[in-house]
Amino acid sequence: MRNSWHKRGELVDDDVAPVELDDLLSIPVSPGVQDRSEKLAADTLRSMRLAELRKAFVLTQVDLAKRMGCSQARISEAEHRPDMMVSTFIGYLHGLGANPRVIVDVPGEGEVRVELDSLLKSGT
After folding, report:
1. What total of structural domains would you count in the chain?
2. What is the structure's pLDDT at 64?
3. Fewer CB atoms near the end CB (10 Å): N or C, the chain?
């Protein structure tokens, strides 16, 4: 069976197509595919609990506690809490190295991105 694959913009037919990561990353991706990929990634992260999100950033509770200047016990409490203040949540996300934002679906207008940091600064 013959395979077709791209290498730096060329279509190549080969019996066995060795594919390097750089080759895969150099393939142009249509905006539609890019948008769907980003949405899938966002949906995956959105459905994670805090501990799963922390693990996705390859951090232990101790690592995150050091970044946030608090105890490991405080991180554990936050991860097991059914509800928390927005400021605590934002601090947790910053500790992970994330850029906290919310996407709001406004009927008739589409999606609006709200940077959570702006909510804290404005006091609203």
Report:
1. 2
2. 95
3. N
User: In angstroms, how far is CA 14 from the centroid of its own chain?
Assistant: 36
Is there a single domain that holds both residue 29 and residue 63? no
Q: SS3 for 107?
A: coil
Tell me how far apart the alpha carbons of residues 40 and 81 are, in angstroms, rounded to a whole number: 26
Q: Model confidence over 17-69: pLDDT tens digits?
A: 566 766 666 777 777 877 777 776 666 555 568 888 899 999 999 999 999 99
Neighbours of 122 (CB within 10 A): 7
> Are both 6 and 54 inside the same structural domain?
no
- Within 10 angstroms of residue 68's Cβ, the number of other Cβ atoms is 16
Q: Do 74 and 115 have their domain in common?
A: yes
pLDDT (0 to 100) of residue 7: 47
Helical (H) or strand (E) element with 6: strand 3-7
Rounded to whole angstroms, the Cα distance separating 122 from 16 reads: 58
